[in-house]
Amino acid sequence: MEIVKSKKKISLAEFANTFFAFGIILIAALLAAELKPNLNLHRAIYSFLASSVLFIPAIYLYILHGKSANKNNYWLLLWIFSFLAYLVHLFYKVLLVPDNIKATFAIHGTAITASELVLALWWGLDISLAWFSDSSATWIEKQRIGVHIYAGLSFLVGTLIGQQGFARILGIILAIAILLSLLVRYHNTRNGRDSEDLPPGSYGLPLIGETIALAWDNHQFYRQRFQKYGSVFKTHLFGKPVIAFIGPEAFTFFLNQEYFTRAKANPQPIQELLDWESLPLLDGSEHRRRKKIILEAFTPQAFDKYIPLIEQTATYYLERWEQLSSFAWIPEYRKLSASLTNALFTGGSPGPESEAVGEIIETFLKGFTSIPINLRWNAYGKALQSRDKLLALIDKAIVQHRQQPQSDMLGLLLTVRGEDGSTLTDEQLRREVLHLFFAAYGGIYISLTYLSLTLAQHPEIMSRARQEVNQYAPSGSLNFAQLQNLVYLKQIAYELRRFYPINAATFFGLVKKETQFQNFRIPQSWGAVGGIHTTMHIPQIFPEPESFQPCRFATEKFASLPENSYVPHGGGARESHRCPGEDLITVLIKVMAVHLLRRYNWELPPQNLELNRNLFPIPRDDLKVKFGTYTENTKQKVS
Ligand code: HEM
């Protein structure tokens, strides 16, 4: 048999157990009073003690509350019976003075009596809310914490101060029970056992959670936890509990906009560095509108405008490298990336001026992994100054592009319109371009670094790619249609982004409304994130994930992959938060590979090629290279 009130199901056994305890304790208290000379006074005192006895397990259970219905039912029943005993106490306290409450105030002091009456009213209200409503509204939860603190302090004062014997012992037991339950709760929370229906995982240290582990090595962070906990786990990052989703199924779930939003979801320093408002930090209709406009700058027609810029930049650096013949490639690729980014977004030419912009971007990027305190002279402060320098550059470029239209990406963005005919305001445009600077700079140099590294390490892949280039693009300038013939290079370009640890995870999301995944509760207002690199190294989906195999991306094989298993640029539709630069990076890798393979060959002298722990990991020795021209005679020997 069950006592069903509202949606609560309290079993008869639960009710009987607590009622029996209540009955015995109250009767014992009232009988004990009978033995004392001043009956009503002692009835009031002993019923207060009876209420305290019932209050101790109630507050213990409340502090340790979790999903267990049984535990919660016992809390509610003890909370109610303790309250009833407290009413008995008040009843006798008032009855002590036959006249009225006013006299009670006079005898016991206004503050104490008023405080007791307020407690009784608040407690009664809370019981009504707990019994009759199933709402877990924040204000109900907050007032419940409040009334428990209030009642706890009242009982502690009532039993410890000026009391002796049994009352004082009760006070000490109450204090110990509260301390113990707080300790157990803290311990459970730290170890992720606070609620059995949450995903597994750990919250790490108080306040900072697991943020240091993430900053130390963001790729290892997700990889290790995925191995330990599986495709969904909880953690605590940047002052907030976060749930990570890894693997196609979990990643797809994370993309569901009914439950997750990107608006106001990212740590405050990321938002500040990106000047608060650009695609990754927006959601809903404004994100859709802007994304449609931005995507207009990533079409095949647009790529045909950028390909000459890429070729011009590639040629500039290839000639320089030919002269240098022996150098560290990563600093060079950073310069190339700066020149190309500057060409796309401000109309700059390759060379020292653009490379100086690269240094501003580098300082800006350091802000994303620094301690977010703006002191002007520290990394974060300098990153914010660099952000403002980039914004000033963009403002200047917008004015210049208006005066003299150009066919770079900024030129296109100034003219394109969304479906509803709207354009970006200058304020919106400068912030979007700031983010594009950030996204493109890293994406370009990292992809080209991995391309050069891979081709040097796999002569058979380099040779096959060279044959394809000689067959379909042996000379002359390139265009998008011609690049479509380079099928093997496309496979290499895709495998590079699967194989190497570029992005460990997506931008952060926020749980809009509570939901469930694989029977785990995903609580409202928690952070959420999709694991990228780990998702692409699941052996059931990508066999032998640690081996570089471009053939995984042969058309049929690629088409048969589960949804959201290949996610180097995020997942979902183009209009969602998926990176718009995806196809541009394929174009870039192809153009660079064509220009490298048509004329050059390279070898890597002995060095440490192990990847470091950077946000985008790179070989520790900066990829030293011996670079020269390629001829059939030298058969892939550096000249
Ligand atoms: C190897 C190169 C690149 C990689 C691996 C990459 C990866 C990513 C990833 C993982 C995201 C976040 C997706 C999410 O939060 O769900 C993203 C977002 C974005 N990326 Fe890229 N990206 C690359 C290059 C580029 C380039 C070259 C551009 C532009 C020129 C670009 C522009 C963007 C933009 C605008 C967003 C925000 C999209 C949105 O929130 O709607 N990315 N990228």
Automatic annotation (TrEMBL):
Its cofactor is heme. Pfam families: p450 (PF00067). Keywords: Heme, Iron, Membrane, Metal-binding, Monooxygenase, Oxidoreductase, Transmembrane, Transmembrane helix. GO terms for molecular function: heme binding; iron ion binding; monooxygenase activity; oxidoreductase activity, acting on paired donors, with incorporation or reduction of molecular oxygen. The keyword NAD does not apply. The chain crosses the membrane at residues 12-32, 44-63, 75-92, 104-125, 145-163, 169-186, 433-453. One of its GO terms (biological process) is sterol metabolic process. Coiled coil: none annotated. InterPro entries: Cyt_P450, Cyt_P450_E_grp-IV, Cyt_P450_sf. Gene3D superfamilies: Cytochrome P450. Heme binds at residue 579. The keyword Transmembrane helix applies. PANTHER family: CYTOCHROME P450 26, P450, PUTATIVE (EUROFUNG)-RELATED. Belongs to the cytochrome P450 family. This is Cytochrome P450.
